[in-house]
Fold each of these.
Amino acid sequence: MNPNAITPLILGVLTAAALTAWLMDTRNLISKSPQTPATTLLGWITTLATAALGITRWLSTDDWQPLHSHLDGLVFIATLLGIAILYLASRPRLGRVGVIGWPVMAFLLAWALCASAWTYRPFRLDSIEPVWRIVHLACVYLGTLFALLGAIAGVTYLLVYRSIKHHSLAARPGLPSLEWTESAVIRATTLGFAMLTVGLISGVVVVTAEPGRLGPDWWFSPKVLLAAITWLVFALAMNVRHMSLFRGKRAAWLAITGLILLLTVHGLVTAWPAYSDADNNSPTQDAEAAP
């Protein structure tokens, strides 16, 4: 059977599994119980199944390209995010990270489901220089992964801050310290900033090599402007330890804002016809390649 034909079904099951892991972690948090082995096992099954889906789609392509579409990129990010959640949850005082991480993974899987069932468009592999395409796509998706981790750390910081403010931190075991979460925000956004910087530079190379991709005034297109603003937000978040104005809660909100802007750029590319037609294959090719 063609793996593309059952991709939406698999993604639907994986989304439900990630949500179930979130509900189990949330129940344990509310009941003040430690994380159960069943939650960890479900997390591993979901993550490994997501990885298996991505590898299967990769091996099923004729030219062995790992990132054939935004669908494959989302599966790639979800796999790495699942691994990161499981690793962090195994660390001392970080057992509750799944309460924030699993719904984010479920969101990515649900987005991949939509991309597979309704908006599937393969990348234009014949029009982009292969090396620049690989660099651009890999850095954009890895940058998105670190942005997700930074936002998760930001939400964790706000949760810990609220618990301390209301003197309820002791009743919520598994939460890290404020210092650790602020450091995690800085580290994740620093890595995201580095990846997105390379992604932006390689994207400019791709666009200038093909002047007609985004039109003559591409510098002022919403996609480019939002990407530049996102880069600036991550630049600020990366340097919060040197800027007292953006420390603490402001740093957490910067990381969350950066993720929202980045997801907006991704949504713009996949949903806005003016950009999806430029970045993807022709309608005829789409119909032939659709799952």
Note: DSSP finds ten helices and no strands in the chain.
Amino acid sequence: MKLAALALALIGCVDQGPGPNKKIDPSLVASHLLKEVPAGVTLANVDLDGKLIYVGNTFEGATPWAPGATLTFKSYWKVVKPPGPGWRVFAMVKGSPNTADFVNVAASEVEQGHPVSIWKAGEIIEDVQPITLRPDWRSKTATVFVGLIAVGAHDTGDRMRATGANVVDRAIVARQLDVDLSKAPPPPGTVYVSRATGPIAIDGVANEPSWATAASSAEFATAEGCGESVGKATAKLSYDDTNLYVYVSITDTDVFSEYKKHDEPIWKEDAVEIFIDADGNKRGYVELQVNPNNTTFDSWFVGGRAPSGEVPWDSNMITAVKVRGTPDVANDTDQGWDVEIAIPLVAVKGRDEAMAINIPPHVGDRWKMNVVRVDKKSGGKDVAATSWNRITCADFHGLDRMLTVVFANSDGTITKKPDPIVGEGSGSGSGSGAGSGTAVLPLHP
């Protein structure tokens, strides 16, 4: 990154002061007042008005940095002369020029417990700053800037004069890091579904390694207009070349359904319902259901929410249920039930064989779907519902309320990985081993 471009990027940035100070344990401060700079610090050696030397920094955390992830950034300040009152440390993170990507870093505990006004000549201060990148970060790089600024001031001219190669508008270019945008958390209403890392046996028990890395929901949200369900429900999703896998775990003190025949109206009592509009155009979608008796129902709907679907259509899904109690005895004491489902990918097309979707889905492909838990309370006339993405009680299908499901790699990223180069090796000269001692801060072209 050119320094001239960085100067343009910093114009208009507002430095916000730290929040209210909290009581800091003196022993914490003492542990960060050092006698010498530790080995491994990336050096900058920037002079600030003859009073301070910004020696350099280190950071801890996974790189490339990912939106929403936190790195622990440590700056090392050497005091030549006491700066005196009226100054504070500032730190901020900027994205690429001409973008809105910006993070203002609040005062650290070290700064609050040992403010600039009491810094003494000869001190070496290790300032520890946990920095979280915004979840909606869009730049491929993130540059950390630090420096000193007058208390209560905001302009670049109010910063303490800094001189050195890595200085822009009196701000020290402390570190520039690459950002892996493929690991950005999904926006609200979106879930990245990781590819299964191995086989999944449909037995009602989610104990395979693939479930440990599967996309997982928060506790299902109560449908708008519905009463509260008994207990809670959560779900997981995964996939492979053949199936979409769904696992739902429900706590319930009275698990019950009288229905035991395929395609009976099992939605009238306890059940799990899955709705999939694979191409997202609302012109055709499938509805799949399982109840505590492991009874199933499936139907194909054409043209949005019709009075009834095409019930004779069969998805050929495979299901297994584990009930912690008695599934067909009402008004007793149960603990809940779990259901595991393998939905053939081809089934999501319903009767529309020409549906324009990839089978199996490619990394980055998007479908629309939702997972709903139906609960009928003992002695009640109506059912209640909760779901992964919130629906209304008036319409459990809720095509406009579906999740956006994005198919991902097994590590949860949504960037297509390049095909391996045949014959490519990893000889002893291919690595980039880390050396010991100090490193020099690189300038970025």
Note: Residues 3-10 form the longest helix (8 residues).
